[in-house]
Design a protein that fits this description.
The structure is a homodimer of 331-residue chains. Chain A is of the alpha/beta class. Chain A folds into 2 domains: 1-120 and 286-315, Isopropylmalate Dehydrogenase (3-Layer(aba) Sandwich), CATH 3.40.718.10; 122-278, Isopropylmalate Dehydrogenase. The first copy, chain A, has helices at residues 15-28, 38-45, 70-76, 81-90, 103-114, 149-166, 188-199, 225-251, 254-261, 264-274, 300-315, 318-327; strands at 2-6, 31-36, 55-59, 96-99, 124-131, 134-139, 173-177, 203-208, 220-222, 282-285, 290-293. The first copy, chain A, has an 11-stranded mixed sheet, sandwiched between helices. In chain A, helix 3 crosses helix 5 (103-114) and helix 8 (225-251) crosses helix 9. The longest helix of chain A has 27 residues, at 225-251. The radius of gyration of chain A is 20 Å and the shape is globular. The relative contact order of chain A is 0.17. The mean pLDDT of chain A is 91.
Chain lengths: 331, 331
């Protein structure tokens, strides 16, 4: 098994990507091809001699920056690590692609290079989030900002296959993100999607609200990519804001500072549970290949876990399960 | 000045509404008319004898429940506290209306009873949220889930007038909630709104992302009511989730428990800063009258602060300022 890794993607690339890839190669015993500027990658690789046999470098001459417009950048930079990495997958020279780079560019290039799975029209980004009861999967968090109701039904089937085979959840419950629980609540798009989901074989529990996103009320949360992206970014930043507020208040009092001194271990465990990097990045479902997208701020652990997640997705043949599930719609 | 208060609205009505109204009457020296079932209100009022001269009761025979469909409920229950309360405003028998009841019903009934301010087509719910730098105002958080770009421009002008006169912010900065900072990011609706805002006289800083909602990056955050509602509910629940996670982790260790024992005061101050009830509820802007909507979970403090906010809005003639601002569009 070979995982193709965009060595140039992410705020702390290539350093953390190379380190994370080296850890993953050792821990999961997978081959890794790092795609990027050799002059930048090779000196970093020397620090990881015990992963040497498992890692190779594939040269790219261009890098797509985080802020570049997605469609334009992949047309202009055909020799970028993202475009070349996905070409390797297309040519059968790798089994999965990971990038913590420009999400829009990865989504566009994946759709164009790999094409869609039979029966799917649009890819969706699925992300695992921690909840009070364990984890939930939210799809879509930004690939498809103006979807049709049928796309959300298919996201539901994709997410079900994913959760079933990667997290062992049989018949996971599915909720539709809206602004009230009644079927009549929400935009025309949400109401029509509600109807489609109700008629499907999914374990659909109806509309859920923003407050249910982290309550663990359902296993899968469906939404359009615009709302999902906003909700995800609000929650990422709010967790940090709450943290900052709290630390500020602790520092404001003598007793608080004494208290804080005792809290080290609890803080660390708490942060670990809230940390997206523990859960292995976001998964681009619907494309004809295994593609994992890391957060731009991915650290070494996040890169390692994302590669581990890619390996599981390949081993469990999640894409084959998705094609089966989608072929049965209306059948 | 007389504030009309829906005594029956909210999860803990009428108890907390009556207590909050009594506190507000004493603190702000305003007259209050409590609209609701007299048999339920009057025994509670006996506990607040020192507010007696400032509070009267206006009988209603019906109550709109939190879960009832908005439009239907106000058609069917014309003798509800919400409908009768707003009629009092319409007839000039009160200067502002407060309810912590069914938000949809309050929005519908306000629009129908009071009509819109000259030049406005749709009301928007504005809510003040705490940020790392102070406060920001988000509009719309649920009144208008399928707005036109022009509605958002008008929300911007309404919010500007509000922040300027209530919070003394001159030329507050305005951001448009999207999924990327570039003008090209987002749905067609967001892009067209971006263009309108760029051409307006507002202090428009461009698109902002979900992560900026609590960063204090801009004073006013514009969004459609669907996205705003989801974002608000996600953030309310996430603050609680972070809290619960954290407490769970503290309880999991001996040192954590010792630490927690020292944290009482810091926790309390932290919660106070994060607490929406401190900021006096949401404001329904655009209708021809002063309407404040409380959270369903409003406590006595939230009710009192919301009534104080209503008083300020009347005193500063915010609606006159809004009409002036909107009359100048394109002028």
């Amino acid at each position: 098994m070979k995982i193709i890794v965009d060595a140039m993607g992410g705020d702390k690339a290539p350093e953390v990507v190379v380190s994370g890839a080296a850890s993953a190669a050792r821990e999961y015993r997978v081959n890794i091809e790092l795609v990027g500027i050799p002059e930048q990658i090779e000196p970093l690789l020397k620090r990881h001699k015990n992963s040497k046999d498992l890692i190779s470098v594939y040269p790219a001459t261009e890098v797509i920056q985080m802020s570049e417009p997605a469609a334009l950048s992949i047309r202009k930079k055909r020799n970028s690590s993202i475009c070349l990495g996905l070409n390797l997958i297309k040519e059968g020279k790798g089994d999965a692609f990971f990038s913590a780079g420009n999400t829009g560019a990865v989504v566009c290039a994946s759709s164009l290079s790999l094409g869609m799975l039979p029966g799917t029209e649009r890819p969706g980004i699925a992300i695992v989030v921690p909840t009070l009861k364990g984890i939930s999967l939210i799809i879509d968090v930004g690939a498809n900002i103006d979807p049709k109701p049928m796309h959300l039904l298919k996201y539901g089937l994709m997410a079900e296959a994913y959760l079933c085979h990667i997290f062992n959840r049989y018949q996971p419950s599915v909720g539709l993100l809206s602004i009230g629980e009644e079927a009549s609540k929400g935009t025309d798009f949400v109401r029509e999607t509600h109807r489609l989901l109700s008629e499907s074989r999914l374990n659909f529990i109806g509309n859920i609200e923003g407050k249910d996103l982290f309550s663990g009320r359902c296993d899968i949360i469906l939404c359009d990519g615009f709302v999902g992206n906003v909700a995800l970014k609000v929650s990422e930043s709010l967790a940090e804001t709450v943290y900052t507020f709290f630390k500020r208040h602790l520092k404001g009092s003598f007793l608080g500072m004494i208290g804080a001194a005792f809290l080290g271990a609890s803080f660390t465990r708490f942060k670990k549970q809230m940390d997206y990097s523990e859960y292995g990045g976001a998964v681009l479902l619907g494309v004809n290949g295994v593609v994992i997208i890391g957060h731009g701020r991915s650290n070494e652990l996040a890169v390692k876990n994302a590669i581990g997640r890619a390996k599981e997705e390949i081993e469990h043949k999640v894409n084959e399960r998705i094609v089966e599930a989608i072929s049965q719609i209306g059948g």
